[in-house]
């Protein structure tokens, strides 16, 4: 056991109030895993069972003011008990849009892939940051293989890549890369060392291009 005592200026010794063997766990894993099991059962029942049943509602719609009162989302100084947290899991599931419902229609996403969902459970549980092989050896190799496959689709043998959370971010990265490809001095000199830049696009261009122009400091009027 590692003990640490602090001596103040008046020679008064302050002993630690909560001594713990460094080999002991910081949390009660048995209790935590029981809570996780109960929460998971709620998720399966409310989201994956009821949320995919055509006889159930796509949403339990409430106006913002009413929903805020029902959820009681005010920040608190202290935490809440496990039963209260489990009830919050139920409430979040109840009042959220059931995107896996057969009658939920969206141009970007819908439905559930249980195999992909299992992958999400695994990655969230491992809680890994994907930035070095030392921290994430498996995921780094997986990322490299996916990028290799994507390069193969466009006929590239070598190259690099990055995963983006959506089309807007992808376009912003692409525009920055295009600017750097033509004017690599922007990295050291900034925009003051560049000529006036213009972006040419069709009227049907994705709305994210306007965001790209803002980030790359290109005037909106220059988009044709």
From TrEMBL:
Cofactor: pyridoxal 5'-phosphate
Annotated InterPro entries: PyrdxlP-dep_de-COase, PyrdxlP-dep_Trfase, PyrdxlP-dep_Trfase_major
Keyword set, alphabetical order: Decarboxylase, Lyase, Pyridoxal phosphate
Keyword Lyase: yes
GO CC terms, sorted: cytoplasm
Single GO molecular function: pyridoxal phosphate binding
GO terms classed as biological process: carboxylic acid metabolic process; taurine biosynthetic process
Family: Belongs to the group II decarboxylase family.
Record note on quaternary structure: Homodimer.
Protein name: Cysteine sulfinic acid decarboxylase
